Amino acid sequence: MIASVRGTVLSIGLDHAVLEVGGVGVAVYATPVTLASLRRGEEGHLATSLVVREDSLTLYGFAHADARDLFVLLQTASGVGPRLALAMLAVLDPEQLRTALADGDIALLTQVPGIGKKSAERLTLELRDKVAAEPATEPRAGDRIRTEVSDALVGLGFSAKHAEQSVEAVLADGAEADTSAVLRRALANMGPK
């Protein structure tokens, strides 16, 4: 399995992006939200799932591993292939989708094109226990950013305590919501004054 790809974003289409990985252009299908997070000419990193069919190898990409894991889980339900699983994640974020499946929220699930009332009922019946039993693999956004930035700072040679204090100070402002911005501000706080 190809668990993730990292490389320069060569192009972004309506339903896919092409990343150059080791000199090879790799097409990765993704939701509009994931594609919107990529910038042409910049480095992109996606958690991925490779779907192997008799006549094709198709790579699907996600901003976070929890979305990828849910994509794989959705395909264990009868009648759900990769395109429908991706459509579900395009309409509902992973947390909303897990909650809808666990709670049997038919109205929310039928907002996804291609899912009618009977399909939604079948999905909740087949996946309810699986999503309820599956621990969340991705922490909340603030916790994820806190962990990623602290780990990056420790990797740069700062002490864990100093890194955590700097990240907490940046997050306490509440203005930043993405990892790279928090990292920049935390590094600025840690530099000589």
UniProtKB/TrEMBL annotation:
Coiled coil: none
Domain of life: Bacteria
Compartment list: Cytoplasm
One annotated Gene Ontology cellular component of this protein: cytoplasm
InterPro entries: DNA_helicase_Holl-junc_RuvA_I, Hlx-hairpin-Hlx_DNA-bd_motif, NA-bd_OB-fold, RuvA, RuvA_2-like, RuvA_C, RuvA_C_sf
Classification via Gene3D superfamilies: 5' to 3' exonuclease, C-terminal subdomain (1.10.150.20), DNA helicase RuvA subunit, C-terminal domain (1.10.8.10), Nucleic acid-binding proteins (2.40.50.140)
Any one Gene Ontology BP term: DNA repair
Primary localization: cytoplasm
Entry keywords, A to Z: ATP-binding, Cytoplasm, DNA damage, DNA recombination, DNA repair, DNA-binding, Helicase, Hydrolase, Nucleotide-binding
Record SMART domains: HhH1 (SM00278)
Claim: DNA-binding is one of the keywords in the record: yes
UniProt family annotation: Belongs to the RuvA family.
Annotated function: The RuvA-RuvB-RuvC complex processes Holliday junction (HJ) DNA during genetic recombination and DNA repair, while the RuvA-RuvB complex plays an important role in the rescue of blocked DNA replication forks via replication fork reversal (RFR). RuvA specifically binds to HJ cruciform DNA, conferring on it an open structure. The RuvB hexamer acts as an ATP-dependent pump, pulling dsDNA into and through the RuvAB complex. HJ branch migration allows RuvC to scan DNA until it finds its consensus sequence, where it cleaves and resolves the cruciform DNA.
Subunit structure: Homotetramer. Forms an RuvA(8)-RuvB(12)-Holliday junction (HJ) complex. HJ DNA is sandwiched between 2 RuvA tetramers; dsDNA enters through RuvA and exits via RuvB. An RuvB hexamer assembles on each DNA strand where it exits the tetramer. Each RuvB hexamer is contacted by two RuvA subunits (via domain III) on 2 adjacent RuvB subunits; this complex drives branch migration. In the full resolvosome a probable DNA-RuvA(4)-RuvB(12)-RuvC(2) complex forms which resolves the HJ.
The record's note on its domains: Has three domains with a flexible linker between the domains II and III and assumes an 'L' shape. Domain III is highly mobile and contacts RuvB.
Protein name: Holliday junction branch migration complex subunit RuvA
